[in-house]
Amino acid sequence: MMRNGTKGKARTTVDGIKHALTNDRYLYSIVLSQSEAPFGVAGVRGKPVRTMPFGLVAALISDLDPTDVLGTPDDRRAHTAVLDSMAQSGPVLPMAFGTVIPSDVAICTDILEPRQDEYHEALRQLSGHGQYTLLVRFERDAVLHEILADNPEAVWLREAIVGTSEDETRSERYQLDKIIDETMQKWKSAEATSILEQLEGVATRMCLREVREADDVLEVALLVRDDAVTRCNSLIGALAATGSECLRFRLVGEEAPYDFVDIGPLRAGRR
Fold first, then answer.
1. What does the alpha-carbon distance between residue 66 and residue 23 come to, in Å, rounded to a whole number?
2. The pTM is what?
3. What is d(CA 72, CA 52) in angstroms, rounded to the nearest whole number?
4. Could you read off the pLDDT of 28-51 as tens digits, one per residue?
5. Rounded to the nearest 5 degrees, what angle is found at the Cα of 136, between the Cα atoms of 131 and 137?
6. Cβ-based neighbour number of residue 185 at 10 Å
7. What CA dihedral angle connects 80, 82, 85 and 89, to 10 degrees?
8. Containing H/E element for 216?
9. What element of type H or E holds 174?
10. Which member of 3, 17, 78, 238 has the greatest number of CB atoms within 10 A?
11. pLDDT attached to residue 1
12. Which residue has the higher pLDDT, 23 or 125?
């Protein structure tokens, strides 16, 4: 992260408002010009968050002291909290964590002015929507229960393990875990496809993320209209209640639309 801003007591005027150039600005997102900063949410390093309008859009920023060094877990949590809180009241175009701009002038001339119309159109398209993330995982014990119903090898391995230490039956445990992992891999595609097909009816757009663990079935970001949120929640509740006992559903959000911003300079804002 480069700090090459103007230092000293200079001031500049942007949209008729005077701003000091003594500190760097931390940039969270681009929002509509009439947007207000989220109330009661502290920014990175505990600084107050404010908007800086420029034409049709505005930058959501906070000040940084020259000695501030970013990158702690608290900094990341504050960055996310500001964005997700802002998303509750209107559309946002998130910036990547750690985006620091040297002055108000640089925010206007380098960030807002060159793509003002493009940002405004992107915000217009996101207006009235929110991002939610659905995570679906296998419940490992439930998967094993189903395997034991018709897999004699798994039954034998399970019986061999019961009442023993990990060292005594390390090989048997490895073989049983391998059977469980292979079974989940076989089931994963069909389960994910079925869930995604049903989500198409409630989501305006979907962005499928790569799953990282053997137990993960699906991780998908959903862009949902505000008037479809109740139907989305009901659908996911029904899938969890009536689907396989081997699956566990978790819905996260509302979040800032990290996965649905396609403007070049802002793609880095994706998680």
1. 6
2. 0.79
3. 26
4. 999 999 999 988 899 999 999 999
5. 150
6. 10
7. -130
8. strand 216-225
9. helix 170-199
10. 78
11. 35
12. 125
